[in-house]
Amino acid sequence: MSNDANMVLNQLAGALVGGDVNVVDLTHTLDPDFPVIVLPPEFGQCARFRVEEVSRYDHRGPAWYWRNFSCGEHTGTHFDAPVHWVSGKDLPNATVDAIPAGAFVRQAVVIDCSSECAGNEDFLLTTDHIVAWENEYGSIPAGGWVLMRTDWSKRKGAEYLNMRDDGAHSPGPTAEAVRFLVEQRDIIGFGTETIGTDAGQAAHLSPPYPAHFLLHGAGKYGLQCLANLDQLPATGSVLICPPLKIKHGSGSPLRVLALVPGEGQ
């Protein structure tokens, strides 16, 4: 390790201890009541989080407390690997266990769409919205995350899924916006506060579910069910988001953390 790199890491460690850098938790608590995506009944369904107690300082284990849990790979706040979608199924290093570890620590920007989503549950992020954001904050850096703030994470239960007779209604990006971020800005991934990276009605877009199809087809990643995006600056945060190292995993629940500038102690 070079002296410069060593100094940078020491400075970061000191900044974390001293409060010059804060850590923001972008993760929902994983519990049995947290909603999961609901697909048409002819398809397989994502499993909710389930937990069962093994022992708690009792006859089953007098000195220890532990539990078994089970859930789908895409339950709660979770990571999507390229292999999750058919467009990424033949790419190299496309499963969570094969993705290089360095990909899980990257800078992030936040595009605030919360006011638009407050008045339109089916709001779609367009390229024009992204360009307008860049005119104010600068170009989106290559190799970083773009997080779409909608404040959807403040919803609970049925309001979070927002299901109707014609399916879910929630915001997301247009195909053109995703294509712009992938081809023109070379992002590493796209994150949302909703149940998926796509809008609730994205089956009607072209291609259907463009965030999944275009991101994963390009070897990019997804994060969904994020929380606390209102606590992040538009620019200047670093995302830490390693999924569980599941063999051949298509995704994983995870704890997403953001490093942001603090005010010191």
Summarize the structure.
With about 260 residues, this protein is α/β, with parallel strands linked by helices. The chain is built from six helices and 15 strands.
Fold and architecture overview:
By secondary structure, the chain is α/β, with parallel strands linked by helices. Helices cover 21% and strands 26% of the residues. The protein contains six helices and 15 strands. The strands form four sheets. Strands 1-15-13-5-7-11-12-4-14 form a nine-stranded mixed sheet. α6 (210-217) links the parallel β11 (189-192) and β12 (221-224). α5 runs parallel beside α6 (210-217). The longest helix is centred in the N-terminal third of the chain and has 16 residues, at 3-18. It is globular and about 65 Å long. The two termini are 30 Å apart. The mean pLDDT is 97.
Topology:
Elements: H1 3-18, E1 21-25, E2 50-58, E3 61-70, E4 78-80, E5 105-112, H2 114-119, E6 124-125, H3 127-137, E7 145-149, H4 157-161, E8 163-164, E9 167-168, E10 172-173, H5 175-184, E11 189-192, H6 210-217, E12 221-224, E13 237-240, E14 251-253, E15 257-261
Helix pairs in contact: 5-6
